[in-house]
Design brief:
Length: 157
Amino acid sequence: MTIKLIAIGKTDNKQLTSLIDDYTKRLGYYIKFHLDIIPDIKNSKNLSEVQQNKKEGELILKKLNTNAILILLDENGKQMDSVGFSSYLQKYMNSGIKELVFVIGGPYGFSEDMYKKANGKLSLSKMTFSHQMIRLFFIEQLYRGFTILKNEPYHHR
C-alpha cells in the first residue's frame, strides 16, 4: 500500500520543511509515502471562497488514482488518539487497497465535490493550525502510528 498526503501551497519555513523531510524519511522504513504539494491558486484574491475551493478541488481530484481511498483532514472529521489511528491504518492495510490518500485543504477547506468524493473525514484537533504545521503533525502521526504497530518504543503508552 502507498500512503499519499496532498496539500495546497508550499511550506516557506525551512525549519518545518526540515522536520517534514525527517519524518518523511523515517516513514520510508515502514511504507511507501509520498507528499504531493499543489501550488497555490494564481490570482486567488480575485476568486470567492467557493470558487477557490472548487479550483483547488479540481486540482486535487486530478491527482487521485481511480481506486484510491480519499480521506479529508477536516475539522469536523472523526477524532482519535494515536493508538486508535494506528488501528485505523492497520484496517486499511489489511483491506488490500493500493493507495490511501489524505488531503489537507486550502485556507477555506474543501469544495462540495471533494466532500462527495471522500471516503471519510479525519480531524487532528478541534484547534486550528496553519496548513504548514498540519503537514508536520500529520506526517509525525503517521510515523507514530507505524511505530505503534511495530511495538517500537517511539510512542509511550
